[in-house]
Specification:
The chain has helices at residues 3-23, 29-42, 63-67, 73-90, 140-145, and strands spanning 45-46, 51-52, 56-61, 100-106, 114-119, 150-153, 162-168, 174-179, 184-187, 194-195, 206-211, 214-219, 226-228, 231-233, 235-238, 243-246, 249-257. The protein has 260 residues and is an alpha+beta fold. The relative contact order is 0.12.
Length: 260
């Protein structure tokens, strides 16, 4: 680990963990996302023609912290991997493969701590998507050397219901988008599915994804926030007629049907 990354890691552990114990704050997905991004930055490999970053991440959390995400755990690994992809694209980093994240509950990790192990995939011999990057706790040899069982969460890629949304830009222009099984990314950056022509929208403002057969909007920590039907939100289930406001842009759900 580079010296500056090691120093950053020291101060993170010094300040984040005591404050979490003192104020009983719950670990947030955005904190995990930022830790993955810092791991990508710290371990990037620079060559004359490109900057290659890791694409395999094993995130170890205390079991109570992972359990605290509740229903969000079901889709969190996919969202984290998708966030890592957006982060790499925004900085023009090269990836050997699409990012993959494994979430592990590990009793050896302290509360409010986040441990990220990184790997560079080898495309010709890469493991299938969804296969744990570490030895399962049920392996007899692993249990001999590791007295603490580690739970591996295999998270399938969620599919969103097919839906149609109308987008009203700040100038009054309207556009329509069809949301397929992969969901819809929203922001000013050109790598989004819905590119907002709005200065008050962040580069990567939010996502509409599938969860349990429903449409869910997830904010990505934008400066100006998001509102659904006039109320500030960071996460909300959307239905026909719901109105999502990001900056001065309005998104209205016109129709929705079950995923393919």
């Amino acid at each position: 680990m580079p010296p500056l990354a090691a120093i950053e890691r020291f101060f993170e552990r010094l300040f984040e963990r005591p404050s979490a114990r003192l104020f009983r704050t719950r670990l947030q997905p955005i904190q995990v996302q930022r830790r993955i991004e810092r791991a990508m930055e710290a371990e990037r490999r620079v060559s004359p023609d490109r900057t290659l970053v890791p694409d395999r991440f094993v995130v170890r959390l205390h079991p109570d912290d992972l359990a605290g995400f509740g229903d969000l755990t079901e889709t969190m690994a996919f969202e984290l991997a998708d966030g890592a992809l957006s982060f790499a694209r925004a900085r023009h980093y090269a990836l050997a493969d699409r990012p993959h994240v494994d979430l592990l509950a590990d009793g050896r990790v302290a509360r409010a701590d986040i441990r990220v192990e990184i790997h560079f995939s080898d495309p010709p011999n890469r493991r299938p998507a969804g296969t744990p990057a570490t030895t399962p706790a049920s392996d007899p040899e692993a249990m001999t050397t590791d007295p603490t069982p580690t739970l591996v969460f295999a998270v399938p890629q969620p599919r969103a219901p097919r839906a149609i949304v109308e987008v009203v830009d700040p100038g009054g222009r309207t556009r329509r988008f069809t949301i397929g099984g992969g969901g819809l990314t929203i922001g000013r950056s050109e790598d989004n599915d819905l590119v907002a022509r709005d200065a008050r929208v962040s580069r990567h403002h939010g996502r509409i994804v599938g969860r349990g057969g429903t449409l869910v909007y997830l904010a990505l920590g934008s400066t100006n926030g998001s509102r659904a039907n006039g109320q500030p939100v960071t996460e909300v289930v959307l239905g026909i007629g719901d109105q999502l406001e990001i900056g001065d842009t309005t998104i209205v759900v016109e129709a929705a049907a079950a995923a393919d």
